[in-house]
Amino acid sequence: MPELAEVEWYRKQWDVGRGDAIVDLALHARKRVFRGTNARAMQRLIGAKFLNSEARGKRMLFKFSGDTWLGIHLGMTGTLRVESADYRAAKHDHLVIRQRTRALVFRDSRQFGRVRFHHGADAPNWWRDETPEIVSAQFNRRWIDNFLDRHGKAPIKAVLLMQHGFSGIGNWMADEILWRARILPSRRTMSLGLNERANLFRETKFVARRSLATLGKNYSEPPRGWLIHERWSRSGVCPKHRTPLRHATIGGRTTAWCPRCQM
DNA sequence: ACCCCTGTTCGGCG
DNA sequence: CCGCCGAACAGGGG
Q: CA A174, C1' C13: Å apart?
């Protein structure tokens, strides 16, 4: 599920455990979600206190006492949730962090997600990234114009999916942005005019903000009239004037657009 | 049975 | 070397 708004919502699920110590861990170190990670070193988390967390795009970082850090990416099917203290891990619960009165659970059936561990006084190298959050002031016209210029040959849909430019944007948000900006997803980025770039920038900010205010806040539905409510159905129509949507693979992903609105 | 999937990485190729 | 594209990863759901 997770794009930036869902990631933010999932991150907050574990907030109830802040300030409490970890009394036990349940994980299988050889699972694919731990690829590239020394999962055995995670035993160091036992006894540590969960302090706080932060999200950047689709990535999350959880900080614990004792200079220990946990990075989580939800991939395609990852979720975070809270269960009671006596919770028994189910098939795809790859990490269960036990506190005295609850269990913090990471589940991911497809295992495209990832768990990383770091021990050190400073945040890990893999957390450092100068890509600005879309809702931040650093994400401005100058910055994104520079990014668009560097990928002029790619279809704009593919560029919206690049995490080093549009941090946290995924398939449905990219389609939502292009529909609102009235730009065909297959357009080469270098072909966009000044007005189109301005629209793209404005709608990127808008979709990110509104998604965080709905999905990100309490997992409520994005506003009525958004493309997301139509895009999955074969018979989906444009929310504006009921024109049947078109579908194709662009940038390697299924893409939906309105042939009347988008040029 | 068959096809589809809100993500990322990697090898091949132009 | 740069950059784009398709395949692969793995499992569940329609």
A: 24
pLDDT value for A1? 62
In chain C, which nucleotides are within 7 Å of a protein Cβ? Answer: 3-12
Chain B bases near protein Cβ (<7 Å): 4-9
Which domains does chain A possess?
Answer: 4-127 (3.20.190.10), 141-257 (1.10.8.50)
What is the overall mean pLDDT for chain A? 95
Rounded distance in angstroms from the CA atom of residue A158 to the C1' atom of nucleotide B6: 15
pLDDT tens per residue across span A94-103: 999 999 999 9
Evaluate whether A143 touches A152 at the Cβ level (below 8 Å): no
A76: the nucleotide nearest its CA (via C1') is B7
pLDDT value, residue A194: 95
In chain A, at which residue ranges do the beta strands (DSSP E only) sit? 24-27, 50-56, 59-64, 68-73, 78-84, 93-98, 102-108, 114-119, 246-250, 253-257
pLDDT digits (tens, 9 = 90+) for A46-87: 999 999 999 999 999 999 999 999 999 999 999 999 999 999
